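User: Here's a chain of 476 residues. Predict its fold as tokens.
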Amino acid sequence: MEANYFFVGDRMSKEQERRKLLGEEPVGKLLFKFSLPAITGMIVNALYNVVDRIFIGKGVGELAIGGIFITMPLSLILMAFSMLIGIGGNTLVSIKLGQNKKEEADKVAGNSFVLLALISLTISILGLLFLKPLLNIFGASPSNYQYAYDYMKIILIGAPFQAIGFGMNNFIRGEGSPTTAMKTMLIGAITNTILDPIFIFVFNMGVQGAAIATIISQALSAVWVLAYFFTGKSVLTVKKEYLKLKPTIIKDILSIGVSPFSMQLAGSMVTVLLNNSLKTYGGELANSSMAVINSIAMMVMMPVFGINQGSQPIIGFNYGAKNYDRVKEALKYAAIAATTITTIGFILTQFFPVFLYKLFISSEGDIAGISRIGVPGMRIYLAMFPIIGFQVVSSNYFQATGKPKHAMLLSLSRQVLILIPALLILPRIFGLTGVWLAGPLADLTASIITGFFVIRSVRNLGNEANAVNKKIIGEN
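Assistant: Prediction complete.
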């Protein structure tokens, strides 16, 4: 029964129940309770892209899949800003609630909503104005350019729906209503899965049909989220006066959200470099192969990100409440669960790559061409999958405890400090194989760096906590 996990009553009784839930319930049980809906929601969210690629691959062809993958840098930029505000604001809300500062938490939520709307509208307008030159920079070829353009021009129109639905959904989960947050994602993904084949096969609209299905689905999710906050169902109170932007609140949101933002923005840069390297050393089939590899990796990593989202309010609340043993316990369980998931993903990609490619492509000729390039690519690029779960969860730990500099360093260590140089150097030596090798090299190195920082931080957790709270959160 969802209060979600709260008894029916006024907001104060809900907040009291929330404090008892996060501060006293066994951590393992609590992590499962919060993570399962988050995992489901993240998998469902990933289905937006994966379902689009499956139906496009079946209904249009492998070049269309490559064209959609070309647009990913722009999608990652939009997601980066949604995470900057949504995750940054939600982390701040969790810590404020842990400190029993309810009104301050409400102000953070209101400011976050306004920021999400303004930033996403700006990205939509600028993206539409400069879409053609952007696609050329992203690595589009004459064969897949039109697919990329037709798809992305529609997706950009719906950018505000995606930002508000995804960004504000973090607050639903963070206030202790993970099942409601999961429903947000289910509404969109189920709608998208139903509409995709209708627009692609029945109306014969190709990639444009997939894009229209996506923005309709995102609009429904956004309406659901807004209804939750503005009809009195939430613990957080979104009032008119809380929608007025406050520089100090914005600064705190951005300082904490900068880590996931930087990681997503770096992901966009890496994808641009990756697309161009693949086109140079492997051609269009290499781009299409990476689109499938990325889709499989996304489906494996979404549960890990769900564990991150499930553990974030637990770690953030107990950190704010100075329950450090519960913080350590939550981190341990999250790391074990994430590593288990990525190990299963490793087994699937190493032993069943052809089967995975067939999920996206029907033509035997297309499968033969992509498999020749993509099968070794999948096995090499995802060779370090088992250790990535630990790296992602540990990076999130620093964000959840209000240490954005550490979180940003660890998040960027894989994407920028290691992967980009690897993509610039290794292909010049090993050709296309060098492109694939860049992935596991970055994964391994980043995991070693993360292990060093997280062990040191956990050992000194009690000593450093007060200083961090005063610096980042602004204790009175």
